[in-house]
Specification:
about 250 residues, alpha+beta, outer membrane lipoprotein receptor (LolB), chain A
């Protein structure tokens, strides 16, 4: 009986220690684990290329990001390339697979995804200055492994749940909840195979899709990541043919 009580006491102490960590402490550990604030902020632009699969389909993917809040993604298959971009204010796209070869403004649903990843350093860095709120929700499980769960409420009201590896403190999963026209859209992204680029840790394995439909997820194997590459604002800007429509939104 004493032995069992001793184990129970130890577990209580460990649990108390885990919850004694504050959200801000975990955020700082996450930033330190990825290279530290100075190295993260020294990155002004990122270019990523990789290969992806979704069911039986294989494709090439690319992403360019630049401060402040600009991102452009490309998706190529069977000789055709789709493009989505966000210039910090408006999003536009070219979707040739549906017969749309001319640029068009993005709908609110797709724009949520793109605007979230447009924050080059992520919502945890300088979260208070950005108007975000972070809460520590304790331990959880990700594919059978222990994880530390943070709830991040963005300034616009959207929510992201960050699951941190308790040993390395990098994120291994992020679940997002976007509120669009009164409905909730939930997506999940898993991260792995972290490697350093210019002293900052980046994931080289990414799987993402609707939270309730893992079978439809896209799996990305990153091939190359370059930082501080020369990019221009014009690379992300809304095409001239759409500027009048973008100004109305």
């Amino acid at each position: 009986m004493r032995f069992r009580l001793a184990i129970f006491s130890i577990l209580l102490c460990l649990s108390a220690f885990a919850f004694s960590q504050t959200a801000d402490e975990l955020v700082q550990k996450n930033i330190a684990a990825k290279g530290g604030l100075d190295k993260i902020k020294a990155i002004k632009s990122v270019r990523m290329t990789g290969q992806g699969s979704n069911g039986g389909f294989k494709f090439s993917i690319g992403q360019q990001s630049m401060r402040p809040g600009m991102v452009k993604q490309s998706f190529s298959i069977q000789g055709m390339t789709a493009t989505q971009a966000y210039d910090g204010n408006a999003g536009w796209q070219i979707q040739p697979f549906g017969g749309h070869k001319d640029p068009e403004l993005m709908g609110e649903d797709d724009l949520h995804d793109l605007s979230f990843v447009s924050d080059l350093e992520g919502p945890l860095v300088d979260y208070q200055a950005k108007g975000n709120k972070v809460e520590y929700l304790g331990h959880d499980m990700v594919d059978g492994d222990d994880a530390l769960r943070l709830k991040v409420t963005l300034k616009n009201g959207d929510i992201a749940y960050y699951y941190l590896d308790p040993d390395t403190f990098v994120e291994i999963r992020v679940e997002t909840q976007y509120f669009v026209r009164g409905s909730v859209r939930e997506n999940t992204t898993d991260f792995g195979s972290y490697k350093p680029v210019a002293g900052v840790m980046f994931p080289y394995s990414i799987s993402s899709g609707p939270k309730n439909d893992p079978g439809s997820w896209q799996n990305i194997a990153v091939e190359k990541i370059e930082v501080n590459v020369p990019l221009a604002e014009s690379d992300f800007a809304v095409p001239a043919s759409l500027k009048k429509d973008a100004a109305k939104k």
